[in-house]
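Schema walk-through. Below, the input block comes first and the output block second. Nothing else is stored per chain. Lengths vary across the set, and this one has 81 residues.
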Amino acid sequence: MLEQRPFAERPPGHVPFMNVEMDGDWHPHSSDDLRRLSESITAHADRLRELADRLDGLTNAFDAAKGTAPGAANPEKGRVS
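--- output ---
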């Protein structure tokens, strides 16, 4: 949320800023803060994609060792009611 507090005496002061909600709390951010936050979120997303790829590899190796089709480790997957 873009915000400005023209009568505030405490930080962030009188200049416009972005108030970012995270886990129910609001945190004021300058443009530099937003850039750092964006870089951090991107790095975390990259790491999550790496972990997803690693999990795929482990699941496929497990399936191959068991001689089953991919996804067999999750019996609910593909079940028809």
